[in-house]
Amino acid sequence: MFYISTFEDLSDINSTIRYYGVDIIAVYDSRAQTYENIKNKIFIDAPEDLLLPGMKKRILVLTEHSNLSKLSEYFASKGFPAVVITANSEYFPENLNLKPLPPNFFQRNAKQVAIELLGKLLVKKEIDGTLLIGKIVETEAYYGTHDPASRAYRGLKKHNKGMWLEGGHIFTYMVHANWMFNITTDHDDPEAVLIRALEPLTGLKVMYSRRRKEKIRELCSGPGKLSAAFGIDISYNEKELRNELYIAQSPYTDFEIGSSHRIGVSADVEEHLRFFIKGNRFVSR
Question: In principle, which of 143, 168, 176, 260 could form an S-S bond with 106, CB 3.0–4.6 Å?
């Protein structure tokens, strides 16, 4: 993930690092002496030097004002939702193309979909046009009436009928006063994938406000947390994934996948149905 700004626009570098969860400060600026007092920085000769580390790290690129738009558009052309930070605002490049996944992506086995959702982007467009974007880092697959941990286990009911919708619909329900955000899968069987955790990328001001937390890891590192941060509740239940809330293709593909039994499940099946990106600090546990 890339955040792009200038030395002049950031009044407090350390606060910016904490707010955005920055791992690396990269300097792409001819005025090297400007950055003498910034610790743990690296100097780069070209933006392509950052593409590989940008797969796994959160990078703040400090540059000259004349380079802001150029850098933002370059990263966007490679599929990265890079954010330009100015003294008073944040913005995306106009050529950022967050293409939704097609319905047939979800109309497959829940386990397969749960694995392949890792690294994809959850995108929500707020009423004022603000984009909230998070990288999916943890999922759980739930089968139908034969899965004792599934909401469909005891058959079709009024509260769980959303699971019987064709793959690509939203299914929400509440657990301990927290909304669980699920996506239906398959054609015929009532299956779904629970989105368990996201790495927050953009729209952080809205997420911090909703979560009332000071640490970035607390924004979306759990199913109830991410639903609160993104404003997902019962009003989205049984709607299709499109327009204001959808899953987009992603440039984030360089990672290892871990698996385990599902969390908080007393009667689980033998196979592992929880999947996560290894080493990602935003995984729930």
Answer: 168
